[in-house]
């Protein structure tokens, strides 16, 4: 519908004429010949509201990019208004510029329609990333200020188109791989379900849980294993017997070359021939003290090491020698040796035998 101003009578200069048809309002100053267009038609019998608005105040301000809020005094009677102003990325269309502000109460269907249109438009721009690209393009265009702005825009458009094609190709490959994976999952699930129904899955699981049986050991291998264990035990017994024989031989060699006699004789300050049967216990105690002294000053250890020539078995030889000497002290052999340490050599030979 179209409304045109033909004439006015009695309206002050600067009066604003506002006309509302349905939910749409249009307005213009009556001083000029205007024509108002309403997108929706007016039905027969429908109300059309006409308001004559007069200016009660005005003010002038300068726009500043760093300021968002403006407080203005409209007249001398305390009328004030606060405005928020900001630049928008998407420029207003010609229809939006020419359209007058609508009334506070509008039709709900019209509001919902505009909201849906805005949502669809924003969804389209976001889906293709056009809004951010255009914003960045104009920023770079103002900063670079090329001599050929259209060529600059064409170059940037070609670059954006190439990036979009690569992104679309990558997305297609991802969807294809996802579809293949989903197909594999479905086939695997179908095969597992069939195996569960025909019992093959249960049979496979039962076999996998059974412990594998080892083959029986052959008779020859069993005999070899038994013989190795017996040989190991015999080797340990032979090593112990050899160690004992080595200790005994070392003591005999020490007795033959006189080293044992020298150690025992150097500690005995009085001749052993003067001992009587009543001094046997004292003699044994004295012998034990001499052995302890020899062990402390290292002379006994030196004699045993020189005789055996085996430094690895020093501690064991020392223990065996101590045990042998103690047994000799108990059965009287050590006493006989000490009493006859000054006797002829043939008596010592009889003691060795």
Automatic annotation (TrEMBL):
* Disordered as annotated region, ranges: 187-217, 334-353
Q: What ranges does the record list as Low complexity composition bias? A: 187-196
Basic and acidic residues composition-biased segments: 343-353
Protein name per Swiss-Prot or TrEMBL: Uncharacterized protein
- According to its UniProt entry, this protein's organism is Symbiodinium necroappetens
């Amino acid at each position: 519908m179209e409304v045109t101003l033909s004439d006015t009578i009695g309206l002050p200069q600067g009066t604003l004429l506002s006309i509302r048809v349905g939910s749409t309002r249009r307005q213009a100053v009556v001083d000029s010949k205007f024509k108002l267009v309403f997108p929706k038609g007016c039905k027969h019998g429908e109300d059309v509201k006409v308001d004559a608005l007069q200016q009660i105040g005005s003010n002038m301000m300068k726009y500043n990019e760093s300021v968002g809020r403006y407080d203005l005094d409209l007249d001398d009677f305390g009328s004030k208004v606060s405005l928020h102003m900001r630049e928008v990325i998407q420029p207003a269309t010609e229809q939006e510029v020419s359209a007058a502000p609508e009334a506070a109460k509008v039709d709900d269907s019209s509001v919902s329609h505009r909201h849906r249109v805005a949502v669809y438009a924003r969804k389209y721009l976001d889906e293709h990333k056009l809004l951010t690209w255009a914003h960045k393009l104009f920023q770079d265009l103002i900063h670079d200020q090329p001599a050929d702005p259209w060529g600059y825009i064409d170059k940037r458009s070609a670059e954006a188109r190439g990036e979009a094609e690569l992104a679309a190709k990558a997305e297609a490959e991802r969807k294809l791989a996802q579809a293949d994976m989903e197909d594999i999952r479905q086939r695997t699930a179908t095969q597992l379900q069939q195996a569960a129904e025909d019992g093959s899955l249960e049979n496979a699981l039962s076999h996998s849980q059974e412990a594998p049986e080892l083959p029986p050991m052959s008779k020859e291998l069993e005999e070899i294993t038994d013989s190795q264990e017996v040989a190991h035990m015999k080797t340990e017994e032979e090593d112990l017997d050899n160690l004992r024989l080595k200790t005994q031989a070392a003591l005999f060699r020490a007795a033959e070359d006189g080293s044992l006699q020298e150690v025992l004789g150097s500690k005995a300050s009085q001749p052993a021939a003067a001992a009587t049967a009543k001094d046997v216990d004292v003699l044994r105690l004295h012998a034990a003290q001499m052995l302890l002294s020899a062990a402390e000053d290292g002379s006994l250890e030196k004699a045993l090491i020189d005789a055996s020539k085996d430094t690895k078995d020093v501690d064991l030889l020392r223990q065996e020698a101590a045990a042998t000497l103690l047994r000799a002290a108990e059965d009287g052999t050590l006493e006989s040796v000490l009493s006859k340490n000054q006797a002829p050599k043939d008596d010592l030979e009889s003691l060795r035998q």
